[in-house]
Write a structure and sequence with these properties.
Layout (H helix, E strand, L loop, with lengths): L1 E3 L4 E3 L4 E10 L6 E8 L11 E2 L5 E2 L4 E4 L6 E5 L9 E8 L2 H4 L6 E10 L6 E3 L10 E10 L2 E11 L3 H7 L37 E3 L5 E4 L8 E7 L15 E10 L4 E4 L7 E2 L6 E3 L12 E6 L6 E12 L4 H4 L2 E5 L6 E4 L9 E10 L2 E11 L2 H8 L12
Parallel strand pairs: 1-11, 14-24
Antiparallel strand pairs: 2-13, 3-8, 3-10, 4-5, 4-9, 6-7, 7-8, 9-12, 10-11, 12-13, 15-26, 16-21, 16-23, 17-18, 17-22, 19-20, 20-21, 22-25, 23-24, 25-26
Length: 399
């Protein structure tokens, strides 16, 4: 692996790449986010769709995708699919709510960015110097095209301001909070017809549920919530050459209760993968048993059938590997169209218990209510008993 110094560059190891970040936050309330910007030769984006991050996870005609790799940033890049007028992709890290919390990048230890061929080990590596940093944003590195060849450059350039000022510096039109209406507005004269509605601005909002019992409720925008996705990602550990090692097989699953009273479970155990277009309107995309799928595991919930669903309890189960929740560094991201993503991190944990109840998703008079659980228990049956589900349980296997 090539260890780059600031300003150093090297050819990329292939046409399909994984750009990954890693860091350790030194404070409990320190939260950092990764973002990428597709730039032309003028150093600006072509439009708001050229910002790729947690709220807009794909760009460049499918040439770049954001995945929530263990709560840090991870991007998958397919260079041949990128538009021809994209000359650079810059990869940045920002401190969330830096000004309000008076935090800077100096609170991130061991920060680094790596470049690897898709599915392979890191080939390029850069550790920017963050000790004593006064900035809340930084460009860690960039992919750039030179004479038809793509290269990676280690940058390490700080930027004063958080995510919004950084995005604006590249030409992104960031949505501002709506102003509060006056309590008693004066009558206004008749106004001419309004101009055409401009395209929506990029929303940087994100909801992180950090405290036990913390709740957020979302209202429908339109006729339904659309497709609701629940993504689980984690640090998988290392596998031996012939298997084994410390790799962790962490499974996503849920208990569900429908409006008509039917109850059940969706999980890889017993191959109970559910169904999206019919009851229970919840489907597990698959089972990542190898730990090689960078997107982790995903559950899809049919928001068009939200009225048929009463509640869903999302859990993660360590099926294989020694229970070590600190090592997993797990994170669950709940996303849906036109809504801010909801993030829940699986902090602390008890290593004598193999299952973590993560979030409870409820139909609250048509609203979608998400409540943080993050409680570590022996197995699904104990979680069932704590939440009053009332299922009958027998031992199960994946095979």
């Amino acid at each position: 692996m090539t260890d780059l110094q600031q300003g150093g560059n090297a050819p990329v190891p292939g046409e399909t790449l994984t750009i990954a970040f890693d860091w350790t936050a030194t404070g409990r309330d320190v939260e950092a986010d990764a973002s990428a910007y597709l730039l032309t030769a003028a150093g600006k984006v072509r439009g708001d769709a050229d910002m790729v991050f947690y709220n807009q996870p794909e760009g460049g005609s499918g040439g770049i995708r954001f995945v929530s790799g263990s709560g840090k940033g991870m991007f998958e890049v397919d260079l041949p699919r990128l538009p021809g007028d994209v000359e650079r992709i810059v990869f940045c890290v920002t401190i969330h709510e830096a000004q309000a919390k008076r935090q800077t990048l100096a609170l991130l230890d061991g920060a680094r960015i790596t470049v690897a061929p898709r599915g392979g080990s890191p080939d390029l590596h850069f550790r920017p110097s963050l000790g004593g940093a006064t900035e809340a944003a930084m460009t860690f590195g960039e992919l750039y095209r030179r004479n038809g060849q793509w290269k990676f450059r280690a940058v390490g350039q700080g930027f004063n301001g958080g995510l919004a000022p950084l995005a604006q510096s590249f030409g992104i039109d960031v949505a501002a909070d709506a102003p509060t209406a006056p309590l008693a507005p004066a009558p206004a004269p008749a106004a001419p017809p309004p101009p055409p509605t401009p395209p929506p601005r990029v929303s940087l909002s994100k909801v992180t549920l950090e405290k036990p019992g913390q709740t957020v409720s979302l209202e429908k925008r339109g006729n339904s919530f659309g497709e609701i996705t629940v993504n689980l990602n984690w640090s998988r550990g290392r596998k031996g050459i012939f298997g084994g090692g410390t790799a962790i097989d962490l499974d996503l699953g849920c208990l569900f209760e429908l409006a008509d009273g039917r109850k059940g479970v969706v999980q890889a155990l017993g191959r109970a993968f559910g169904a999206f277009a019919q009851a229970p309107f919840i489907a597990l995309s698959g089972d990542d048993r190898t730990g090689d799928v960078s997107q982790g595991e995903t559950m899809r919930i049919n928001g068009a059938q939200w009225s048929a669903i009463r509640r869903i309890a999302i859990f993660a189960n360590i099926y294989d590997g020694v229970p070590n929740w600190q090592q997993t560094d797990g994170v669950v991201l709940v996303t849906m169209p036109d809504q801010p993503p909801i993030e829940v991190r699986m902090t602390e944990g008890r290593n004598d218990r193999r299952l973590c109840g993560i979030v409870l998703i409820e139909n609250d008079a048509g609203r979608l209510k998400v409540t943080r659980i993050v409680d570590y228990v022996r197995d699904q049956q104990v979680l069932d008993e704590q939440l009053g589900w009332g299922l009958r349980w027998v031992a199960g296997r994946k095979d």
